[in-house]
Amino acid sequence: MNPSYDFGGQVAFVTGAGSGMGLATARAFARSGAAVALTDVDGTALNTAAEQLVGDGHQVLALTCDVSDEDQVAAAVDRTVETFGRLDMAYNNAGIQIPPVDAAEESAEQFDRVHAVNCLTGSAALEDAPRGIRVNAVCPGTIDTPMVSDMIAKGELDRAEAEANQPINRLGTAEEIAEALLWLCSPGAAFVVGVALPVDGGYVAQ
């Protein structure tokens, strides 16, 4: 049985919320009482996700946003605060994954794109802790999401090999990542700062 959380009266901001781990976490926050700002670069997926959550009776704000664009992110955060009056939690989920390649073969464009989209944690945690803002990271294993399904379909990832690489012998689910995130955002994790938490079926423990 999963623990229950009460985020009533609070506001969560979730990037990459159109599908996968972002959508699962947005749903989990909403079920726990939070109003949720959903952002995604894919406007179609974003609107579908927002309609589902609104249909379930949740408070939702949908914002198309490319997280590699600082101005778009700032505008999305401002709009969230204007709409809901506050911002309590942010899940910087948006990310991209590229096929493995030797560093010497990595193009400068691809390198810059990865670093523009995928987030920093340690530095932000140290800077923000004195302000009462906790920053942590969840490090997922191979999770059964549309992104992973697409990689498998393209031959960039072998499902059987990915499952065998995790001691639990299966892919994780987006909902399992969401549960870890809700705990990190809850009072139960009030003394947890700057942690990179593996939620990976034992992959890094090998």
TrEMBL record:
Gene3D superfamilies: NAD(P)-binding Rossmann-like Domain. The keyword Oxidoreductase applies. The keyword Oxidoreductase applies. It holds the Pfam family adh_short. Keywords: Oxidoreductase. SUPFAM superfamilies: NAD(P)-binding Rossmann-fold domains. It comes from the Bacteria. InterPro entries: NAD(P)-bd_dom_sf, SDR_fam. Transmembrane segments: none annotated. PANTHER family: DEHYDROGENASES, SHORT CHAIN, ESTRADIOL 17-BETA-DEHYDROGENASE 8-RELATED. Belongs to the short-chain dehydrogenases/reductases (SDR) family. This is SDR family oxidoreductase. The lineage of its organism: Bacteria, Bacillati, Actinomycetota, Actinomycetes, Kitasatosporales.
